[in-house]
Write the C-alpha cells for this entry.
Amino acid sequence: MKNVWLHRYVVLWAFCTLFLVVAGGLVTSHDAGLSVPDWPLSYGKLMPTMEGNIFYEHGHRMVATTVGLLTIFMAVWLWRAEDRRWMQNLGWIALLAVTAQGVLGGLTVIFLLPRPVSIGHACLAQLFFSTTVAISVFSSPSWKRGSIMVDDDGAPPLHWLAIGAPLCVFIQLALGAAARHQAIGILPHVAGAVVATGMVLWFTVRVLMRHADYDSLRRSALALVSVTFLQVFLGIAAYMSRLATAEAPQPMPVMVGFTVAHVAVGALTMAASVVLSIQVFRNVRRPMPAMQTARIAIPF
Ligand code: HEM
Ligand code: HEM
C-alpha cells in the first residue's frame, strides 16, 4: 500500500516539474531573466513585490524551490521504502540534478545570462523532467507486474533504435536551446527536426508493426509519435509567431504562448522517447549474436 502512495507522489512530482519547465520557459520568452538582479535572495528579500517581469522570474524561483523540496522528500522516501537499490540511487541522482539545476539557474543571474549556462540550464531541465517520468514508470504497479519478453529479430536491432531515438531527440533539444539563446541560427534546429522526427517515426513504426499486441509497447509508441507531431506543429507556430511579432516593442502573447508550449512539449517528447526505450529494453529480448545462435543450433 505504501508503494501505491509513493507512485502517486512521484507522478505528482513529475507534473510539478512540467509546470516548472513552463514557468522557466515564461522567464525566457518574456526576457525576464535579469528582472531580479540578485540570487539566492530577490532584491535582498525572500518575497519581493510581484510586479512586471519580477512575477515571472521570482515566480520561477518559487516553483523551483517547491520542486527542490519535493525532490528531497522523494529521494528520502525512495531510500526508506524501496527495496531496489538502483531505484534508491536514481532518487539521489534526481536530487543531485535538481541541485545542479538550481545552481546553474543562480549562475545565469549572477553572470548576466551567459549563453553556455543558459543553454545548460535549459538542457538539464529537460533531462531532469525525463528522470521524474522514468521514476514514475519504475514505481508504477504495471512495472511491478513484470516484463513480457517478446522477440524481435529485425535489422537494425530494435535496441539500437531505442538508444538512437532519445539521443537524436536530446540533440534536437540542445540545438533548440542554442537557437533560443542566440548561440546559433534556427537552421540547424530545423534540419535536426527532420532527423529527430525521422528517427522517432522509424522507432515507433517498427514497434507498432511488430509489437502492437502488447499494451505497454503500443501505448508508449503511440504517445511518442503523437507528441512528436504536436511538437513539430508547435515549432512551426513558434517560428511563424516570432517572425510575425519581430517588430513588436515587447514579447507578444501569441509568441510567448507558442514558444513556451514548444519548450514544454519538447520536454514531453524527450520523456516519451525515454519511456518507449525503457519499455523496449524491459520487454524485448535482445537478439543473440550470430555466432552464439549458430553454436546453439548445432547440438554437438
Ligand atoms: C531547480 C529546478 C529548475 C528547473 C527545472 C528550471 C527550469 C528552467 C527552464 C526550463 C527554463 C527555460 C529555458 C529556456 O526556455 O530556454 C529556465 C529559465 C531560467 N531559469 Fe530556471 N529552473 C530551475 C531553477 C532555477 C533557479 C533556482 C533559478 C535561480 C535564479 C533559475 C533561473 C532561471 C533564469 C534566470 C532563467 C531564464 C534564462 C534565460 O532567459 O537565459 N532557475 N529554467
Ligand atoms: C522533433 C522536433 C522538435 C523538437 C524536439 C524541438 C524542441 C525544441 C526545444 C526543446 C526548444 C527550446 C529549447 C529550450 O529549452 O531553450 C526549441 C526551440 C525552438 N524550436 Fe524546436 N523542436 C522541434 C522542431 C521544430 C521545428 C520543426 C521548428 C520549425 C521551425 C522549430 C522551431 C523552434 C524555434 C523557432 C525555437 C526557438 C523559440 C524561441 O525563439 O524562443 N522546432 N525546440
Summary: Residues 122, 169, 172-173, 176-177, 179-180, 186, 189-190, 193, 196-197, 228, 231-232, 235-236, 238-239, 242, 259, 262-263, 266, 269 surround protoporphyrin IX containing FE (ligand 2) (CB under 6 Å). The longest helix spans residues 253-283. DSSP finds ten helices and no strands in the chain. The chain has two domains: 1-146, 148-300.
